[in-house]
Design a protein that fits this description.
The protein is mostly helical. Helix content is about 75%, strand content about 0%. Helix 1 packs antiparallel against helix 2 and helix 2 packs antiparallel against helix 3. It starts with a helix and ends with a helix.
């Protein structure tokens, strides 16, 4: 896919995720769109990971970290219920 298209789709998905969170407060939709945005690498996809600039690696690592944190925060009630059920032997 064209690099401009990838960059456009990355920005679109990140913007959509932020908009959905700010508009409705739904973390699951925000998490899903931010996760999908990672598919569209905004940088040159032909450059291997170890040859990328440090700031590009930093942007992508921060993005992945935010997605992981949002996953746990959005699913925290279900995680707590699962731990409680396991602890109580249900």
């Amino acid at each position: 896919m064209n690099q401009r298209v990838n960059t456009f789709l990355y920005i679109l998905m990140v913007s959509l995720g932020v908009f959905q969170y700010l508009n409705s407060g739904n973390l699951m939709d925000c998490f899903a769109n931010l996760g999908i945005a990672l598919v569209f690498d905004p940088f040159d996809k032909d450059v291997p990971w170890k040859n990328r600039k440090s700031w590009q690696k930093g942007v992508l690592l921060v993005h992945v970290s935010v997605v992981i944190v949002l996953f746990f925060v959005a699913n925290l009630p279900a995680i707590c219920n699962g731990i409680s059920d396991g602890w109580n032997g249900r």
